[in-house]
Design a protein that fits this description.
Blueprint (H helix, E strand, L loop, with lengths): L1 H36 L13 H24 L2 H6 L1 H29 L5 H26 L3 H15 L1 H19 L15 H9 L2 H13 L7
Length: 227
């Protein structure tokens, strides 16, 4: 009993810390996306493309911020155990928002490409397809009462849902480390046009290693099923 209570306490503390860490990203994405949808030119910056692609991207920002926030909520085991209805409802909203996020991102890539060129478009495009797939599979398997597969796809969706925040976190950590070492290597291999080696690695590194780690974990130590 004491061990379970301690584990629950650490889980809650970790989720609270994660919730605090994502707040800046969530607020930035919502505010910028909302400005863009309202037609404010200050939200455009380096973005290019037809109006339809820009609107898709700004909608992608708003829905993506909600996906990040809801992904943290879905990780909360105590919440799921005590209020399963809240878990189900937030899960449905997460799936819908993730679907919109993936579709919006793919529309922008198809119409305008990305600032980092073909490699970034490919990396982000694969990410969008995976997001859409997980957003469809997770509720579909829940409705089919296939809870084992639902859980696995739900975890994949959560990892993907945190991807946009992880992308920016990687850059923050990289600049923090390299700039601390010395001014000469501050932002090493990262370029304004995203052509640096670090930039090119990043187009896959913000989601692929985490998905691979999750798959390894699922096969090594599957958790007990929850309805």
């Amino acid at each position: 009993m004491q061990r379970t209570a301690r584990r629950t306490g650490w889980t809650i503390a970790g989720l609270v810390l994660l919730f605090v860490l994502i707040q800046g990203f969530v607020w930035h994405s919502v505010s910028r996306g909302t400005l863009g949808l309202s037609g404010d030119p200050s939200a455009i910056e380096r973005l290019t493309g037809p109006q339809a692609s820009l609107l898709a991207l700004f909608a992608h920002m708003v829905s993506g911020a909600l996906v990040t926030l809801l992904s943290v909520i879905q990780l909360a085991g105590p919440l799921r155990d005590r209020w399963p209805r809240v878990h189900r409802m937030s899960g449905r909203v997460l799936s819908v928002m993730a679907l919109l996020t993936g579709v919006g991102g793919l529309i922008y890539i198809a119409l305008s490409g990305t600032v980092g060129g073909p490699l970034m478009s490919m990396g982000f495009g694969v990410y969008g397809v995976l997001m859409i797939t997980a957003a469809i599979q997770t509720p579909r398997l829940a409705m089919a009462r296939d809870y084992a597969r639902h859980r696995r796809w739900g975890l994949r969706l959560i990892v993907l849902g945190l991807g946009s925040w992880l992308y920016r976190l990687h850059y923050g950590l990289w600049y923090g480390i390299t700039c601390t070492i010395g001014e000469q290597i501050c932002g090493l291999a990262a370029e304004p046009d995203f052509s640096g080696l670090f930039d090119q690695i990043q187009v896959f590194a913000f989601y692929a290693p985490y998905l691979l780690a999750l798959e390894w974990w699922l096969r090594r130590a599957p958790a007990p099923l929850r309805t």
